[in-house]
Amino acid sequence: MLPVAGAERFRSRGRHRPGGGRSPPRPAPLSAMAGPWRGLRRARGWAALAGLRARTDKFGGVSVDLGELRGSPRLERAAFGRWLRESVSQWRDEGRIAVWLRVPILQSSLVAVAASQGFAFHHAEQGSSTLTLWLGEGPSRLPGFATHQLGVAGAVLDESTGKVLVVQDRNKTINAWKFPGGLSNPGEDIGDTAVREVFEETGIKSEFKSILSIRQQHKHPGAFGKSDMYIICRMEPASFRISFCQHECLRCEWMDLEQLARTENTTPITSNVAKLLLFGYREGFDRIDITMREFPAVYTGLFYKLYHRELPEPYRNMT
Ligand SMILES: NC(=O)C1=CN([C@@H]2O[C@H](COP(=O)(O)OP(=O)(O)OC[C@H]3O[C@@H](n4cnc5c(N)ncnc54)[C@H](O)[C@@H]3O)[C@@H](O)[C@H]2O)C=CC1
Ligand SMILES: [Mg+2]
User: Fold this and answer.
1) According to CATH, what is the number of the domain 148-291?
2) Please, what is the Cα angle at 305 between 125 and 152, to 5 degrees?
3) 30-134 maps to CATH 3.40.630.30
4) Which atom from ligand 1 is nearest to the alpha carbon of 149?
5) Cβ atoms of 231 and 273 closer than 8 Å
6) What is the residue range of the signal peptide feature (predicted)?
């Protein structure tokens, strides 16, 4: 069994002791136990299991990282299965609401053992998977993993000529004109994705000016069935000579913005945003722009970017 390492121990419902009182006694060390642990003495890796730490979170869940077994002999599945069953039983008694189990990819045979005890995948990354088991009352309230992917395109408009940069994708069945763009990298700002993707696909350097539109599409086949957010940004060109990526694009050109707004050889998204951009080009970009401001995040010490329509000065400085 696995004693919990968090500062606070959760009391199970019905075991509340008035006045707080002492913590329940810590379980005896694994080696001293009888019953299900006896067989573990000889099982490979059992000693390492005893050293694992279970960390509590502020919601009352408990996390165990099997990566802490690094350098230990490979665990026998049976030993792990018995250890997990006993530990879960103890956490249940302690009133924990959930278990988070991180499994390094090379220990993946233990995933099946955990799954046979009710655990399910929460998410997987390159080197590990994380499984969860809900112990609380009623249906699980654990948040799911990422729900969306983010694509960003750049509508690069040369204001001196009224031409906009467009491409036709090589791998798409319909070769419609669209703005160059692609998927955001983890941790990448929207504007930075637009600059990077425009440059990678067309060779054109550009600067982020504003967000023009946001499209949300559920069950997107290109997002492995997840939802897809597609943001189109207004960009200002910093170079003009096209050198497009032959792998990704079939064609690339500077096209008259009004022609793009009128052509049928495009998607509804590109067509509508071309019309919006044409309106802004003629009537002022302040009519269409969703601009960005940066602020310090209060609790984390990080910064975030807030995107919204222009706020008039008197409102901006209200206290
Ligand atoms: N105008 C529109 O209306 C369009 C919007 N989009 C949006 O743009 C974003 C994605 O842009 P992309 O240009 O597609 O991304 P991207 O520019 O990041 O390119 C993705 C790359 O991955 C490759 N790829 C994708 N799936 C693959 C697979 N299964 N195996 C091997 N290679 C694979 C593609 O060939 C491409 O080279 C999404 O948000 C999408 O919804 C994409 C196309 C058209
Ligand atoms: Mg692309």
Assistant:
1) 3.90.79.10
2) 60
3) yes
4) 39
5) no
6) none
The alpha carbon of 260 and the centre of ligand 2 are apart by a number of angstroms equal to 19
Joined tokens for residue 57: 């979170």
pLDDT digits (tens, 9 = 90+) for 105-139: 999 999 999 999 999 999 999 999 999 999 999 99
Q: Give the distance (Å) from ligand 2 centre to CA of residue 178.
A: 10
CA–CA dist 117, 122 (Å, integer): 15
**Which H or E element spans position 66?**
none
Which is nearest to 202 in space by CA: 258, 139, 250? 250
**What is the atom index within ligand 1 of the atom nearest the CA of 230?**
39
Whole-number Å distance between alpha carbons of 121 and 112 = 11
At residue 156, what is the residue type?
A: V
Q: Is 267 in the pocket of ligand 1 (CB under 6 A)?
A: yes
Q: Which of 178, 179, 183 to mutate to test the pocket of ligand 1 (most atoms within 8 A of CB)?
A: 183
Residues of the chain with CATH 3.90.79.10: 148-291
CB distance 164 to 274 below 8 Å = yes
- ipTM of the complex as predicted: 0.93
Neighbours of 118 (CB within 10 A): 13
* Pocket lining: 24 vs ligand 1, CB cutoff 6 Å: no
Q: What tokens were used for 318?
A: 């209200």
Please state, in angstroms and rounded to a whole number, the distance separating the CA atoms of residues 165 and 180: 8
Using the structure block, give the residue that is written with the tokens 């399910």: 120
- Angstrom distance (rounded) from CA 122 to CA 84: 18
Q: Where in the chain are all domains bearing CATH 3.40.630.30?
A: 30-134
Q: Which atom of ligand 1 is nearest to the CA of 169?
A: 13
